[in-house]
Amino acid sequence: MTVSILLSLSLMLLLAGCVGSTPDNRAEGGGSASAPSGDAKRVLRILYATGEAGSEAIADAVQSYEKKTGWKIEVHTFPYNNLQAKVFSELAEQSGHYDLIAIDTPWVPRIIQHLEPMTSYIRTSQAPDAIQLEDFIAKAFLDTSVFKADSPQTNPPQMDEINLEHIVSSGFDIWSLPVQSNVLTVSYRKDLFDNPANREQFRQQFHRELAVPQTLDEYLEIARFFTRDTNSDGTVDMYGTTLMADMSEANFVDFKSFLSSYGGTIFDDNLKPAFNSTEGVRALETYGSWINQHKVTPPGALTYTWEEVSIVFNSGQVAMGMNYHDMKLDPKVGGQVGYFPFPGVKMGERIVRGPHFGSWGIGINKYSNNKQAAYDLAQTLASPAAQKDYLKFYQHVTRKSAFDAARSLPDASTREYYQALGESLEVGVGRPRITNYDQVSQAVQAAVNDYLTGKKDAQSALNDAAAEVDQLMQQAGY
Questions:
Q1: Residue ranges per structural domain of the chain
Q2: Total-model pTM
Q3: What CATH number should be reported for the domain whose range is 5-183+357-427?
Q4: How buried is residue 463: exposed, middle or buried, by Cβ count under 10 Å (0-12/13-18/19+)?
Q5: In this predicted structure, what is the pLDDT of residue 206?
Q6: Cβ within 8 Å of residue 450, ≥6 positions away
Q7: Rounded CA gap, 175 and 444, in Å?
């Protein structure tokens, strides 16, 4: 979700030299799925995100595809906000300039009428083994790709393994193929956890071993333990954890992760606001207590999003940090980083976990003149072979076989991250499937901020937001 400037610059040079022209070069495309012949190459164009969707991995796969097929592939990348505006404007104009489009999940209800369903292409694929639907992580595939055209807010049938006939018989279609996933995981200072003095002190203080926490309560204990004055100058300079509490999408998905772990939801089955429930109040009060009561986060937590969290963790100011990618330590800090899934809440004999997640799909533009060729390329970019190759770029893959392959990566820390990522995707909770998602998110963001800054108690803040969201939903026709 963060974008590396150096990565973006290097990728721009790579794409300019190898796989594309500028976005304003609108030479007409066309053709079939087979490789073009003659000197006049056919062109496929992809509208894609920058680093947040693994553009470097896609660029590499595109170059291989060009060499194998003879197609010329142009990849035009934009940062998230610019990409969203570009996608919406291209489709509103019914432009066929781009054949494939990167799609963030919450966009689908607003643009589904402009997308080409993929189900028929999957059924008639000349390379049926390439798609291997059962190899996708089911939860990620269902959340990203499976929608009803006339009712995109409807959740798809749940299944542990993707079954095309079950999807179709339930009235759904496949609208994209998942190529990159994001889910909330925790990076932590393994060197601090393994330190013998820390382990003994923690054992004496909490009467249990210092280990990766399974529940939010255990996580808080560890965060309290590591919040300390390390140089005895009277000021706390090490904190237990980070939170992304800025009034932005970051605090919404933070709160949603806590809410889901307590067994709550943003909406009920009738799309009525449900986040002002008992579970919602507990989630918000727990979230706020880490900042205001226990003070286990750095003082700037109310201004943090994923970018600031990365900087704080990198500088060695925290023992644990939540984010949507693996975080690293500055070499000057030293130490070793490990990873584990977002902790949950114990309910009876089981632990309920609900980390926020969302995936990028790659879909076919309904107005493309190259739909079959576009599908063939999308199928290749999402294929098991391609996703295994994506591991060298640390892509957040979406296939079981790619996660299996990640177990053989040479770096132990990277292996551990992929394990945490895969386990988290299996239990992740996606966004509501609504056309006015941004407005709903902003209403909840304001409620979280009102509570964190002491303007309202948790119940009042959530009740007010629920009333606003109810009006927004009625205005949107729900």
A1: 5-183+357-427, 185-355+434-475
A2: 0.89
A3: 3.40.190.10
A4: middle
A5: 95
A6: 456, 461, 464
A7: 29
Q: Which strand ranges, in their side-by-side order, compose the sheet holding 337-341?
A: 320-323, 185-189, 337-341
- Token duo for residue 302: 């109310």
DSSP SS3 for 336 = coil
Distance from C-alpha of 223 to C-alpha of 301, rounded to nearest angstrom: 14
Q: Which among 418, 425, 381, 378 is positioned nearest to 402, based on CA atoms?
A: 418
Q: What is the pLDDT of residues 230-249, one digit of tens each?
A: 988 999 999 999 999 999 99
Nearest of 414, 336, 353, 341 to residue 185 by alpha carbon: 341
Nearest to 28 by CA among 82, 104, 127, 97: 97
In this prediction, what percent of the chain has a pLDDT beyond 70? Answer: 91
At 28, is the secondary structure helix, strand, or coil? coil
Give dist(CA 122, CA 133) in Å, integer: 9
The correct CATH number of 185-355+434-475 out of 3.30.40.10, 3.40.1110.10, 3.90.245.10, 3.40.190.10 is 3.40.190.10
- In the block, tokens 């100058």 appear at 233
**Residue burial 269-297, b: 16+ Cβ < 10 Å; e: rest:** eebebbbbbebbbbbbebbbebbeebbbb
The rounded distance, in Å, linking the Cα atoms of 407 and 317 is 30
Give residue for tokens 């729900």: 478
Nearest Cα to Cα of residue 369 among 23, 20, 44, 26: 44
Is 50 exceeded by the pLDDT of residue 19? no
Instruction: Establish whether domains 5-183+357-427 and 185-355+434-475 are of one fold.
Output: yes
Helices marked H in 397-457: 400-406, 412-427, 437-452
pLDDT in tens, 281-328: 999 999 999 999 999 999 999 999 999 999 999 999 999 999 999 999
Task: Say if residue 101's pLDDT is above 60.
Answer: yes
